[in-house]
Amino acid sequence: MASLEAQPVAATTNVFQPGGVECKKFKVDSSPPKPLLIFTPIVAGEYPVILFCHGFALPRSFYSDLLHHIASHGYIVVAPQFCVIYEWMPMLPYCEIKCAGQVADWIAEKLQSLLPENVIANVGKFVMAGHSRGGKTAFAVALGYAKTKLSISALVGVDPVAGANKYCRTSPWILNGKPGSFKLSMPVAIIGTGLGPEKADYCCSKPCAPEGVNHKNFFLDSNPPCAYFVAKEYGHMDMLNDNLEGVLGDVANCLCKNGTGHKDCMRRTVGGLIVAFLRAHLDLHTHDLDAIVANPSLAPATLDPAKYIKAP
Questions:
Q1: Which one, 71, 108, 175, 268, has least CB within 10 Å?
Q2: Where exactly are the structural domains of the chain?
Q3: Which of 147, 144, 80 is nearest to 111 (CA)?
């Protein structure tokens, strides 16, 4: 494996700022396999499609600011709402993975008819992505645990988590603990958090992204090409919206160890890294990814590590 060496890059990158493509969001709750929240450009053009899977028991709306940032750079983002069932129920992970595959098939067959005039969904550039357990769901679909008509062009895990801890595994168990053992056919980006493995500041708390089942392990098992970034000073929920409504919002705000920086910095960092990675692999425009690897201080959040492993 050859690691991309850090070289001086003179120009900066715009991926950490909102993009210049005007977007809208809308809900589709009637006919798909799961209720959907869709972010789409309204400017005529052809755009890649991202299926984004939310974390355990989190409403899809909690990711609105992050997903709008990504869409504003020229992507259609489809965010399904999976079942909210307690984690220990053994059928849930399989249910989410199966449903993600069904949503992918719906994207292939029905998405285009709902988009604005002259906006074309390029399903030939289809991306699976997800946060926390949704990151595991995205990886599981890519690994073939759900069948879909679409070929996956790229895979993104945002602080992915494979279970409550390495001793309490949710099925299917996808981690192998061996370098490159996933043997995925598509490029992978993993964005982790430095505070995810730490407990929140209250009694009896547990880490939201425990050691042994978090981004480090997903990166270990991933094969090149693979990008790996860790937002050192931020926590597992810091890429969500500022104002989270309801009981689930209260839980999300206190359940995990949070960073002291503004969440907008984390959202722009995560969104920008995803855009840079997808530009490199879907459009072969590598400048942004090269620039960030060479100079991680371009990102609003501190990135350590920030690396990209090329294919052999």
A1: 108
A2: 2-310
A3: 80
Give the Cα separation of 306 and 198 in Å (integer).
Answer: 21
Whether the Cβ atoms of residue 239 and residue 209 lie closer than 8 Å to each other? no
Q: Point out which residues pair with 306 in neighbouring strands.
A: 229
Q: Rounded mean pLDDT of 136-152?
A: 96
What distance in Å separates the CA atoms of residue 108 and residue 124, rounded to the nearest whole number? 9
The bridge status of strand 163-165 relative to strand 168-169 is antiparallel
Backbone dihedral region for residue 287 (phi beyond 0: left; psi -120 to 50: alpha; all else: beta): alpha
Provide the CATH number for the domain formed by 2-310 in this structure. Answer: 3.40.50.1820
Length of the chain: 312
Q: What are residue 127's DSSP bridge partners?
A: 50, 154
What is the DSSP code string of 173-221? P---SSTTTT--SS-EEEEEESSTTSPPSSTT---SS-TTSSHHHHHHH
The CA dihedral of 233, 277, 71, 116, to the nearest 10 degrees, is -170
- What's the CA gap between 104 and 66, in Å, rounded? 21
State how far the Cα of 309 lies from the Cα of 312, in Å rounded to an integer.
9
The terminus-to-terminus CA distance of the chain in angstroms comes to 5
- Residues serving a catalytic function are 132, 159, 236
Residue 178, amino acid: K
pLDDT tens readout for residues 250-262 = 888 888 999 989 9
Each residue of 42-95: pLDDT tens digit? Answer: 999 999 999 999 998 899 999 999 999 999 999 999 999 986 544 444 445 578
Strands 188-193 and 226-231: parallel
How many other C-beta atoms can be found within 10 angstroms of the C-beta atom of residue 73?
Answer: 24
Residue pLDDT, tens place only, 18-45: 999 999 999 998 778 899 999 999 999 9
Alpha-helical (H) ranges within 80-209 are: 91-110, 133-142
